[in-house]
């Protein structure tokens, strides 16, 4: 009987630790958990200088960068995204969930709209977030309850030789020639998630 009680206690302890490790769920603007496979608009949380996230161009190139829709006449909500947790068993995005993110849209230049980390801007040393490259693993953190949220990025370092100190960062906005790019390594930019 004592063995059964110990076994059940151990199982309860494991379940409690598992729940704590997951972190609180990321909530959309309606207060519902952000969920795998559902489309969301990523909107600025505390400013109205630009709209939601979308595909943008740089130097007349294909729209292969993640950026913000400029404020003006027409649609400023951007393109919907889909979050895919790295762990296939997870359905709710929590503050500790590692995931990939992709636009739920097509582009004429590349077929894959999954976000990756692109080149470093030589003037600012900030890394641009791109699509159609190696998918990057992101996470979401909260600055204050109940939001707004920020995107974080930290590269994996699983293969020998050890990569040393990884270059992690928080997503922010870099404005160049009137275009607002989503980047890593600058001041954090707060976002909210609105179900499409």
Automatic annotation (TrEMBL):
Keywords: Signal. Residues 1-21 form the signal peptide. Pfam families: Kunitz_legume. It comes from the Eukaryota. GO terms for molecular function: endopeptidase inhibitor activity. The keyword Signal applies. This is Kunitz-type trypsin inhibitor C3. The lineage of its organism: Eukaryota, Viridiplantae, Streptophyta, Embryophyta, Tracheophyta.
